[in-house]
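Working notes for the structural subgroup meeting. M.R. asked for a predicted model of this chain before we commit to crystallization trials. I am recording the input and output together here so anyone reviewing the notebook later can reproduce the run.

Input as submitted:
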Amino acid sequence: MNSEVLHKLQTIVGNKNFLNSEEDKICYSYDGTPLFYKQPEAIVFPQDEEQISQILTLANQEKFAVIPRGAGTGLSGGSVPVDNSIVMVMTKWDKVLEIDKANLTAWVQPGVVTGALQALVEKEGLFYPPDPGSLNVCTIGGNVAENAGGLRGLKYGVTKNYVLGVEMILPTGELLRTGGKNLKDVAGYNLRDFVVGSEGTLGVFTKILLKLIPKPQQSITLTAYFKNLSDSGNSVADIIASHITPSMIEFLDSTTMQCVEDYTKIGLPGNAEAMLLIEVDGRGSAVQDDAETIENILRKHNAFGVAKATTEQDALRLKGARRSAFSALARKKPTTILEDVTVPRSELPVMIEKISQAAKKFDMYFGNFGHAGDGNLHPTCLTDERDNAGIANAHRAFDYIFNEAIILGGTITGEHGTGLAKKQFLESVAGIPGVEFMKKIKVSIDPNNVLNPGKIFSISPRCEGSLPRSVQHDHKH
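Returned structure, recorded in token form:
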């Protein structure tokens, strides 16, 4: 990118909102995804919709790429720069614009931190359920771009279930408004759901309208431990089959438990192969009845140490420990590759075993945890990116895991997105016609491929997709 173009960008956003020193470029060269890194040409912090539009118009004229970015907590490479690109950071767009208690909605800017929004609406007796593990850091805009999930996804769903409308700047610079506070609206294509989960490839969010619900009156949090993995998986399947829908059923294997205990010192046992953290919530006596039924199911499947959190502080401490799983595992090795597969809930015990087989087959150190209630697991490989043979084995292990998930009727990602990390697997799930349909949509909306190009799929000859994963990585970076 030549100096004249950089000067035009600086003029659009102002000196204080333009960065291009070597130190700044390094800071915005990566996100939470390991092994992906690329320096941008510059970083911009737009102040209003007009500046975003001007930047995208310039990108179309000068043929450079724009990478939207929130807090950078993503785990699929969605906000990693590409060649000849700038990073557009939206974290300063951090205002809650309206809480409408009559309609149970909130208008927010994309840089609002998820946990901060939750705390704010709960003071009003309301509830915003989506709760990614990084909720105290990640932003609503990033959540919408990735269709983020979280611990409460089993009962309450994921981000898409709470997006009522968006305002966004299209790749060619126009402002799009779609959705609204109407509970029913079938006028034309459902563009709102279309852009949720589009991973920053179809537009830059500027305002988001979220659905709120009444805050649950009470909740009960339970813990249970198991001597073998299959008992924990069978417990989950049995709980779901009993027609109880907990707000969360979280799974941790022994490796993850050990790392979490080393990190948090909350007293997790050292003789368990698996742990389940379960929460039921709602109104009245039904909450207690559901908790008792779940306790009986756990004990039927040989659980030990079954217990209820005695105070709200204890419950928060347990859930906080679960949220720390990624950080706790990351302390063990220099490189932590946290992945994301989902299978039908009935296949969860099989998938847990397949992940264990992958670790043994490729001689890799794995931890495994996740949202067991909705079949979403996070197999996590602990390795060292300086060890080329180890990284190659890690890729082989994940190839095996993804393929086994697909065989079980599952998918390659439940909440992290496709991004750079998984696009070579997309055809296996969506099929060639599905991927080609997505590409046609992208090309029609973004004819010059300026907005987050190369994410989800590449607009390029199909031969690139046939490269092995390790070769693709070297080829692209």
